[in-house]
């Protein structure tokens, strides 16, 4: 009986050990799978696996909890998910910082991205105690400390911006608009909007990187009425050689094609665009392709070969007005850190003399989404220069004395916010156009990029002053008359304090008269020009 009793206790114990061992093995495998997904850039998929794994880790295993929470936070950070804040907090609570203080830097980034500047400042300061020479941390700290002055300085703050409902769709991103040709009557943009197929079916093809639908290129045209027409998808590649619908759907699921930013030559006939594809789970990197439009049809896209090493990713093409300079973004290892902006020269049918734009523009952070105007002025986005948080829009003017140097300026409010602001385009030589931003808008869900328009309002020309005598004493009861060569004929009474204020028209020659009882008349002529 004693032996039997011992056996009855031993069997459940052995069974319990087996369960614990199996669970531990299963948890370890789950974390390794998540690590692999993180390594190949499938951040959303990895975050979901880390999330499930974290729930199964014993509370006493703080080291493992710290590691998994940190990796989950990194995934959210890389896909701009606001949940990064809470998961970084969890990792810090579990003392991940004893392993790597980088957590304080990334935590500061996401706090700054949400406009929490005071909290971000504390995290930058904590990080700099361990790594006092980190350039990005010093820039971030300086930005948080100077944020109020940056907001006041503005930039091209006379522009009025507006959310463009014609281009944006709820629960989807639309970004990087660019005009097609110099007539500015067509717009190209990138979007992961949901396409309707049939009465009730919606096409969905999700990215393992972001967990959201993959991106395609779209165009929209201005109608004769002045309104925007229907949005049309631009289809450039046949997605595989599948023979039937089932094979096609399987091909799209396993080898999805994702389009990036586009750029047109001035005549609107040649398109450069980013392109990436995962084939059977393997990331093929991002490439730049070009295609020509002839009689409404697109030619077969051809890769723009920029580097001999095909493993180097290139993206965000921006062709200049004359079509002989191609600006682009790359993660080439010998850059200044992160992603840098390069320029290549057209040489016959190929591109050469490729050069990094240098340390004035490129930083240890990311510089992306270049746009070049006909006057050679470059616009780009960066998270490495002093800014409001996330990606900010910057304008770079070539130095007149040294073409390799640039004068950089943050475009300020209203273009920049604590969120990502990028992908700007201009309507020819006008200071009007469109840009994209991830800033929240109304009832539209957070975490998506949207397109905004900006318009520079016509400036009001006003002349004002006082009517005084030769001793600078106010003349009471003076009459002012303004005559212009455009037919203007204005007569008004100055106020009792002698003051007056008159609205003028541009490019008009005016003669201004002042008269008052007991005083000699006075006149003055001038022309209002563009200045």
Structure, described:
- The chain is an alpha+beta fold.
- The chain has 3 domains: 25-151, Tetratricopeptide repeat domain (Serine Threonine Protein Phosphatase 5, Tetratricopeptide repeat, Alpha Horseshoe); 152-455, Neuraminidase (6 Propeller), CATH 2.120.10; 461-527, Immunoglobulin-like.
- The chain has 9 helices and 29 strands.
- Mean pLDDT is 87; it is low at 1-22 and 239-247.
Poorly predicted segments: 1-22, 239-247
Number of domains: 3
Largest sheet: 5 strands, antiparallel
Shape verdict: globular
Alpha-carbon distance between the two ends: 107 Å
Mean pLDDT: 87
- The value of Rg in angstroms is 30 Å
Structure summary:
The chain is an alpha+beta fold. It contains 9 helices and 29 strands.
Q: Helix and strand layout, with pairings?
A:
Elements: H1 2-39, H2 43-56, H3 62-78, H4 84-93, H5 102-113, H6 117-130, H7 135-145, H8 147-153, E1 160-163, E2 174-179, E3 186-191, E4 195-197, E5 201-203, E6 216-221, E7 232-234, H9 245-254, E8 257-264, E9 270-279, E10 282-294, E11 297-298, E12 302-303, E13 314-319, E14 325-330, E15 340-347, E16 350-356, E17 367-372, E18 378-382, E19 392-398, E20 406-410, E21 421-426, E22 433-437, E23 450-455, E24 461-466, E25 479-484, E26 489-493, E27 499-504, E28 509-515, E29 522-527
Antiparallel strand pairs: 1-23, 2-3, 3-6, 4-5, 6-7, 8-9, 9-10, 10-11, 10-12, 13-14, 14-15, 15-16, 17-18, 18-19, 19-20, 21-22, 22-23, 24-27, 25-26, 25-28, 28-29
